[in-house]
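[audit] Reproducing an earlier prediction to check determinism. Same input, same settings, fresh worker. If the tokens differ from the archived copy the diff job will pick it up downstream; this log only records the rerun itself.
[audit] input (535 residues):
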Amino acid sequence: MSFNIFKHNDLFSTASQIELEDLPVILAAGYKSVICNRPDGEDGGHHASSKDLAAACEALGLAFSYLPADATHLSKEHGMALRRLLADLPAPVLAFCRTGNRSTNIFRLANLIDAPIQAAGAGNDKLKQYEIVIVGGGSAGIAVASSLLKRAPNAQVAIIEPSSLHYYQPAWTLVGRGIFDSRKTVRPMASLIPEGAQWVQHAAAEFLPDHNRIRLDNGCLIAYQQLIVCPGLRLAWEKIEGLEQTLGKNGVTSNYRYDLAPYTWQLVSQLKQGKALFSQPAMPIKCAGAPQKAMYLSCDYWLRKGVLKRIEVEFNNAGSALFGVAAFVPALMRYVGKYQARLVLESNLVKVDGENKLAWFDVKDNSGNTSRQQKPFDMLHAVPPQVAPDAVRNSPLANADGWCEVDPASLRHVRYRNVFALGDVCSTANAKTVAAIRKQAVVVASNLLAACAGKPLDARYDGYGACPLTVEKGKVILAEFGYGGKLLPTFRLDPTIARRSAWLLKTSVLPWVYWKLMLKGREWLAKSSESIENP
């Protein structure tokens, strides 16, 4: 038997590509129905067509159905169609595609399957093993999985990710200005899992790197040869007293959450007078420019509507500078002045009373003394402190601050040689942005495979990150920089000048690059720098 069968439960299994001569084996194994999820002609017609399979199945007494699906365009309609088929076909049913992954994801979309490890009936004493395990199915996890499988198509890869949805978070700032449809920022996770990767729909609860194991939130263990850690970070809303209870109402919002960004736009479009507060917590946070981008875009709208003069705008930043890269501060300060916003540095949001429209900030004065100040508001855009996920920060992988501790150039763990990390969970000093992940995915994929082959880790990450600072509708300051604040502009233009071309890049080009290139392992402008030295 040249194909692999994965049994999800007693009624349904999936398999890699089958041929006509495999059908008697499938019948002998007890299956009564076959579903083909691979479109005819997908590989130039080298595999058996659905017409030939249907005829062969009929001759053997097997039921057959053809449900073709493009691996890159799975949707809930595929799941609904499978649900209808399973209601009519005699069981047990075997569905197949090139690797079996597509069929598994369609089954998941039908809401008829729990995580693969559970569906197989595995208990706590069962151990599922993979060559490469990726923890996290966000931007970093999908991008690095695709880059790995592009380089090593036969690699056995598992992605541990509990969420059924995947978000393009960089557009949420635009959603908060009424410029971008929030529905275009979310897609089913199943439609993005690269073919060849196995999706384990659970969360990692415990890392056991001394034993090459991960414990899932259902108690099951996953074993790995190589581990990639990229579960992102956690938004610690609870660290601001009263904030969680009032989010999404009482004028309190945040573009850092999918369901709240539309509320930001509702508040901005309705506010005609009063006080608008914007906050930014201490670093590190994802997209360090996002808190002030919310302010700029809101002020731009109010200025265009002629109401800005009746709105008192205040930006409270827990840091000591408006932006971490000094070269961009003068240009940004000109916009702060244009919008007549009050900038309060070293002012940290600590408490919110939404019903009474009050916020409290711990503010440090020039002498280093901190006092708590109460401020009324009509609108509050709050950004929470951000920390590593508990499973990482409580593990041997973490540094003193809780982040996964890696070499900043190779992105390999400093103590565990078969562990790599990328994305927001990293201990690296770069800006936590999708642009950084686009570069990091290439470095990790290249270096992990080099390590497996016993070769030097030549791919180097230079700390590249990008922050398209949307200072007004139609103009963006494209801040690109690396370690130490070194400017790393992609284009030969003064990066401190707000440009319409950068706005078009932010609003139209980059979303396309994300969905069509980055998550597919197509590494446009993402090649790493290289060194002949070992890390």
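[audit] rerun output stored. Observation attached for the diff report: The chain is about 25% helix and 25% strand.
[audit] end
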